[in-house]
Amino acid sequence: MNLVSRPIKFTILCLVLGVSKLAFSTELNPQFHELLENGLRSKGPVQLEFFLQLDPIQKFCSESSVDIQGDKASLLMSEARQQIQYPDDGDYVGDWREGEKIAQSGKGLRFNDSDDTKNGGNCYACHQIRKEELAYGTLGPSLYQYGKLRGYSKEILRYTWGKIFNPQAFLICSNMPRYGHKGILTMEQMRDLMGLLLDPESPVNE
Ligand code: HEC
After folding, report:
1. Helix (H, G, I), strand (E, B), or coil: what is residue 43?
2. What's the pTM?
3. Nearest residue CA, atom 30 of ligand 1?
């Protein structure tokens, strides 16, 4: 007879092994790994693959001591750079008005969002962007006057696109979400964000 239910067994096991071991170790014992895979399921934005750390950069950055300047970091970044998808037509700069809406929107990837919720970028959570917007986070650098300060060269367009697509391809373990790499935003949405940052007509570059 099974006196202890599966979730309780799982909780006890987590406590015994230590939650930090569970979350951060890359050397999970195979039986424990199996238990995780069989006992948990993905739901909405919470994916089992995050827990199992299948993503090599996530796994690397979750180690207790990380050498961000070492060979392994360089290799992971160069692999990530090779996976960046650039717009086929070389048309990087979309509509800044749409870009502003995407930068403002924190919708999507929340537990109670439905599958058809369109994801936002939530860029203001970490960056200053338009001067008029007073509510912004400061984890990331200010992007106000981004184009005006950086210029509008092909290199800057390419770098900025790549950065939005996968920030960790340029700075391993960056706190910024990997919008393209993780399929959070579409190519069209990223173009519009590029417009917000890099259209000379955008209020960001006034
Ligand atoms: C959770 C916080 C966070 C969010 C959300 C975020 N960023 Fe960032 N961003 C950062 C941090 C931190 C940096 C600096 C470290 C780095 O370069 O990765 C950064 C750097 C950048 C840079 C490079 C700036 C430079 O001077 O080279 C760009 C461009 C950028 N972010 C654009 C965006 C856009 C566009 C969005 C929304 C789609 C966004 N960020 C959302 C945290 C964030």
Report:
1. strand
2. 0.87
3. 164
